[in-house]
Amino acid sequence: MIIDKQMVEYVANLSQIKLTEEQSVLMQTELSKIIEYMDLLKEVDTAGIEPLSHVFSVTNVTRQDVIGEHFKRDLLLKNAPEATDEAFVVPKAVDK
Q: Is residue 4 within 8 Å of residue 28, measured between CB atoms?
């Protein structure tokens, strides 16, 4: 793949960055080097290699779900601007 000025302008536009003429020329060179390196990786024999999503084995680390002390409902509702016996009263979020 050849990286020309038009390609650099296209990528810069997608990235929403402005490049000077000097920066544009530098980007052509740098992006060309990156593409050349990626072409080297195509030469690696990967037959029989299982695809990975991550190089390390990833497991969730979770804590035990333990019931603990909680606030009393009547104390919490006492601080609300408006409440019923069981819950906070809030304005409607969806209108019919």
A: yes
Q: Give the residue from 26, 83, 55 showing the smallest Cα distance to 5.
A: 26
Predicted TM-score of the model (pTM): 0.48
Question: Can you give the chain as a three-state secondary structure string?
Answer: CCCCHHHHHHHHHHHCCCCCHHHHHHHHHHHHHHHHHHHHHHCCCCCCCCCCCCCCCCCCCCCCCCCCCCCCHHHHHHCCCCECCCCECCCCCCCC
Domain residue ranges in the chain: 5-42
d(CA 24, CA 15) in angstroms, rounded, equals 13
- For residue 17, the model assigns a pLDDT of 95
Token pair for 25: 């020329």
The CATH number of the domain covering residues in 5-42? 1.10.20
CB 3 within 8 A of CB 22: no
Which residues are bridge partners to 88 per DSSP?
83
